[in-house]
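anyone seen this seq b4? input:
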Amino acid sequence: MVSSPPPLLLLLFLLLPSLCSSAPAFLRSPPSRLAHPSSFVAQQPVWFRQRLDHFSSQDRREFQQRYYEFLDYFKDPNAPIFLRICGESTCSGIPNDYLLVLAKKFGAAVVSLEHRYYGESSPFEELTTDNLKYLSSKQALFDLASYRNFYQESINKKFNTTEKENPWIVFGVSYPGALSAWFRLKFPHLVRGSLSSSGVVLAVHNYTAFDQQVAASAGPACANALRDVTQEVDKALTSNSHKIKALFGVEQLKNDGDFRYLLADAAAEAFQYGNPDILCLPLVAAYSSGQNVVAAYAEFVKLFFFGIFGVNPISYDQEHLKLTKSGPDTGDRQWWYQVCTEVAYFQVAPSQNSIRSPGVNEKYHLDLCANVFGNGTYPEVDITNLYYASNIVFTNGSQDPWRHASKQISSPGEPAIIITCHNCGHGVDLRGCPQSPHQIEGDATKCAKPNEVHKARQQIADYIQKWLKNEDTSSTL
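predicted toks r here
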């Protein structure tokens, strides 16, 4: 029986009180199913009827879409409304992060709309490939516009006013961060400004920069240890694939590519969500002392990635992705459909110094798309160029592998802020550190450099203030 070095168990013991949430695979934000109720300020759902197809005048079908509202700070009928966009997972409420601090500062209402097809906002009970054809970011943007107008009318009725328009600001993290930026671009007359936190707005087909950033965030010693793990696992897969998968507790993954993808994701999410030391300290200790580095990594995957983070390895199984039954906790099939038809971001192995296996290549991704959704499924990545928009703030954490799919260079009306610290990852400006598990009000005290986060937050607040005053920010970088 192989055991891992003691440092991992010690680190997990010390961090266990705060590690109570989970983060699924790929791009999706940490889900809230394990979060404490204090992590939310609103969990009572409200519903409205949404059009199924915004681009067909003949199709009048509708579905029920879920949203949440928080009005504790909304005392002035002319105060702003903050629209927080939910993304590619169940939307369980309005989280109590730094957005709520901003809402209190500006006396804003906060509302949040669940993304179509996710959680309880699915138009269909069966998510067949044909039924998924209405799932896209383009449809989602019109959902947001329709909802924004619906809610504005409800506020007007509540305060017995007519034709009044509150100032709206839209917020999102990760894929919702991209939607936030795209919404401001598509509907500038509906919102004053947008915060795109870790917003993946740049079209990338083969996203090799993801793995390169993982290596940079890991540092030389940890990156070398991870490369050693990958090489040893690839060797083991050719001799006894069942045995190596059993070491990681994932014998059910029959496809070697799915297994390789899972192993790459487990490492990436440690950096993506601000927990680098939990991975690197024990792994480097094993690597430098000549211990079994694969066993050490397997211990990390089982104890942290599966046990603490709550990732279910079945979500990497292509046979699981073929299941079409809709439900409040499903989301894997839907997101992969968006990946395979629209956004891509294929996390392929770089040609040199790759941390992930070279078996995780473009062919693996395209084969998955065809296997799960049918032949001919291919991503269209002709995403709108954002450089002609204005009143959008882009923020990124320095350690986040997704930052290279975001906007990192400022341009007129589009300031780009990089928040730099050892554990500044995905959505650090709103989430604090670590980014998972949940930090109340986006507590930044555990960030390696809290002042970097505070400085970025002050810039965000300053921009919101200017937007609400209708001041020109195009010359401010």
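Confidence is low (pLDDT under 50) at residues 1-6, 12-25, 384-388. The CA atoms of residues 236 and 244 lie 6 Å apart. kinda curious what u guys think
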